[in-house]
């Protein structure tokens, strides 16, 4: 990019600074006047409506939000056929969604198992809520018994966002093991603390959460850990996670969550090459405005490990009040964005 294209008048773009020195970029970047002018012009010249309604204003909102999803994915070099984007209330909202929905029992084999759904935004039914709601008794009892004793693990880095630590409270209830690890830059274990463990068969799904850049220290962690974790090649995976019978675990049952909120405020992120399963971002850290808006970017092939319970607003296509029956929306984003999305905030992105 031409350096001249990045030039701006500080007093013109950031008049609120005046004689101030802003030192909290890690907390939130500054909003420029040109951004606010563009938002004002857009909202003053276009008629946007609730995307759950019908009519031209509603359709305009839906179409524009879809375009923004694609543009955000393009910004991170992610294909919309490979990744989906779910808008959340921020980084914390994305982590909470993962904590609530991640299936630690799962099916052996992880990626590529045709029985767990294709995972694509357009055709994956994800939680199969309509089938289970119609007749829960049709589920094979032996499969239920097997899955009830097979669980995975939740592992988080010591140097992590407090919201990542908060995920463990759900993991205590659902995972077979919860552990905190401290790693050096090479991935070697400095310390390892097991917070919870039981005698479950640990051949379920395993979730590892770590920041691309620490909110606390600014330290950057290697993104190539993603490939190593997914293949079970990290030293701590061999030392800290052993099956109850000592056998080798199923392949492709490791899932990675990359907290990229701090990193993307100043650095590029290429999801086309590193391919994590889940990525979380906050837009105010990138643009300063709007606040209270973030996203969970998920690999479509990992969608089957998210089992959603609650539904509301636009997340269902059909729901019956007198029967336990509902049909979830077809796309991943529609299934996980409960209620009316903050569409005016999204349009400002």
UniProtKB/TrEMBL annotation:
One of its GO terms (molecular function) is molybdenum cofactor sulfurtransferase activity. Residues 115-126 have a biased composition (Basic and acidic residues). Residues 21-105, 255-346 form the Aminotransferase class V domain. It comes from the Eukaryota. GO terms for biological process: molybdopterin cofactor metabolic process. Residues 127-139 have a biased composition (Polar residues). Residues 112-139 are annotated as: Disordered. This is Aminotransferase class V domain-containing protein.
């Amino acid at each position: 990019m031409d350096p001249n294209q990045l030039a701006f008048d500080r007093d013109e773009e950031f008049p609120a600074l005046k004689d101030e020195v802003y030192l909290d970029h890690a907390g939130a970047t500054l909003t420029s006047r040109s951004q606010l002018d563009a938002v004002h012009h857009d909202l003053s010249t276009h008629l946007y409506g609730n995307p759950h309604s019908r009519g031209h204003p509603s359709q305009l909102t839906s179409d524009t939000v879809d375009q923004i999803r694609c543009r955000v994915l393009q910004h991170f070099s992610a294909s919309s056929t490979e990744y989906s984007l779910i808008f959340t209330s921020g980084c914390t909202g994305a982590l909470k969604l993962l904590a609530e929905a991640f299936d630690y029992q799962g099916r052996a084999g992880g990626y590529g198992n045709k029985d767990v759904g294709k995972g694509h935004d357009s055709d994956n039914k994800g939680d199969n809520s309509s089938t289970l709601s119609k007749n829960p008794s049709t589920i094979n009892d032996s499969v239920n018994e097997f899955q009830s004793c097979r669980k995975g693990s939740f592992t988080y880095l010591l140097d992590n966002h407090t919201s990542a630590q908060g995920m463990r409270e759900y993991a205590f209830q659902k995972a077979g093991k919860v552990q905190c690890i401290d790693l050096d830059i090479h991935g070697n274990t400095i310390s390892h603390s097991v917070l919870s463990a039981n005698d479950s068969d640990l051949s379920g799904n395993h979730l590892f959460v770590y920041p691309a850049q620490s909110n606390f220290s600014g330290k950057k962690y290697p993104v190539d850990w993603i490939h190593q974790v997914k293949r079970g090649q990290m030293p701590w995976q061999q030392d800290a996670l052993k099956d109850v019978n000592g056998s080798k675990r199923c392949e492709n049952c490791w899932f990675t969550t990359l907290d990229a909120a701090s990193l993307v405020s100043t650095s590029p992120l290429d999801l086309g090459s590193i391919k994590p399963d889940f990525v979380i971002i906050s837009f105010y850290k990138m643009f300063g405005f709007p606040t209270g808006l973030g996203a969970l970017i998920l690999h479509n092939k990992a969608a089957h490990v998210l089992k959603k319970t609650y539904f509301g607003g636009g997340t269902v296509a059909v729901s019956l009040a007198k029967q336990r029956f509902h049909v979830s929306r077809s796309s991943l984003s529609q299934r996980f964005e409960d209620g009316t999305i903050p569409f005016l905030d999204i349009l400002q992105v």
